[in-house]
Amino acid sequence: MYRVFFLDGTHADKTRWAKSKDIAKAIYTDIHKLESLSRKTELSKDEIIFCRNRGYISQQEAAQLSSSKISAPFTWNELAKKYEDWSRANCRSTTHIRNADKVKVVLDYLHKYFPGKTPADITKEDVESYISQRKQQGIKNATSRKEHTLIRKLLDYMGSDNPARQVPAPPINDERLPCALSYEDLIVFMQELKKRKAYLRGYLRAVVMLYLYAGLRPSEIIRLTAQDIRAGKIMIHGETKTGMLRSIEIHPKLNVYISTCLLRLSAVPAQAGGGKYLCGGNNQLVPQSISRAIRHILRKIEIDGTPYSLRHTFVTNLLRASNDLRYTMDRAGHKRLSTTTRYLHIIESKESPLKKMKFRA
Questions:
Q1: Strand pairing report for 229-230 and 233-236
Q2: Secondary structure (H, E, C), 37-98
Q3: Rounded CA separation 14/7 (Å)
Q4: Is 168 exposed, middle or buried (0-12, 13-18, 19+ CB in 10 A)?
Q5: Is the pTM above the cut of 0.90?
Q6: 217, 241 in Cβ contact below 8 A?
Q7: 183-345: what CATH class?
Q8: Nearest to residue 160, comparing CAs of 38, 46, 43, 49?
Q9: What is the pLDDT of residues 99-157, one digit of tens each?
């Protein structure tokens, strides 16, 4: 239960329930701030809009809390500008670039599906129609869900009833199975890789081997330093996709490339600050550059795959060699065991397990 204080000196007692303890904690933080700021008459317009969209106050109460009518941008471009400003201030540069590109795509389809309609004219049925038409184009549910979330964020800036919040987010039920490279594909890939020694300032071969023999993610490869190589292991710190610490034994074939990278680091003059990154030296590599270089080779040899296929190849072969889900999960840095079990469809047993069963007489 909480109390909202209005500008005319009146107040309203309100109640909010939650289904879980975690949600209740988040709600408590919000309503405590609402009650405190409304008592001091220090609520900003954005905070009033936030509370209205979360259902902590009604539209009429939002108008009472504001000394002037809560106005909203009336064009899609103005809403996109607000979202991009938020993204620039709160996201990493690479994430912000993706967000800006995503906004342009969504706005193009909104103008195509609903020509002449302003954000204020959009209804719940329009949002449902948008999702339906995009699905007919063959996009995956995961993409549809992201676009729905973006439309919801854009319309949140309106400060009124958000029709996108009345539409359930599309469920993510796409079966995205990992795609590993075959032994034959790897031979062709490595032969083509040898022809491109200068790619990524000469670090591409080391990057590929870290994919194949350590299963590192691009974000982990570019952050790797000489201090992370200890006692024949690669130490991965918490600045990862899952935030999990792990150590990976250095494969003999990988050891050659790591030694070469360490020699390049030691060759950097001390007065120049010394080399910092194992793959990159003084200048950190960019994930997009790694992806672009590997994709170029895959297209050249006409293999249907992605840069992540190299990491999938590591996990697949490690699981095949160890037959141990927990061991593979730890080395791959998976947060959930269910992620590792998705690789089981690739593993084919040469002999039926039934034939291996033996009973003592």
A1: antiparallel
A2: HHHCCCCCHHHHHHHHHCCCCCHHHHHHHCCCCCCCCCCHHHHHHHHHHHHHHHCCHHHHHH
A3: 17
A4: exposed
A5: no
A6: yes
A7: mainly alpha
A8: 49
A9: 888 999 999 999 999 888 888 888 899 999 999 999 888 888 888 889 999 999 998 88
Widest CA span in the chain = 91
Parallel, antiparallel, or unpaired: how do β-strands 246-249 and 233-236 relate?
antiparallel
User: Backbone phi, then psi, for 246, in 5-degree steps?
Assistant: -160, 160
- Convert the pLDDT of each residue in 230-278 to its tens digit: 888 998 875 666 667 888 999 999 999 999 999 888 876 644 445 688 9
Beta bridge partners of 233: 230, 249
Domain boundaries, the chain: 2-65, 76-166, 183-345
Strand partners, 4: 12
CA separation for the pair 66, 59 (Å, rounded): 11
Q: Which residues of the chain have pLDDT under 50?
A: 68-70, 72-73, 270-273, 361
- Side chain identity, residue 211: Y
Which residue shows structure tokens 């065991």? 337
Residues 131 and 106 sit within 8 Å (Cβ to Cβ): no
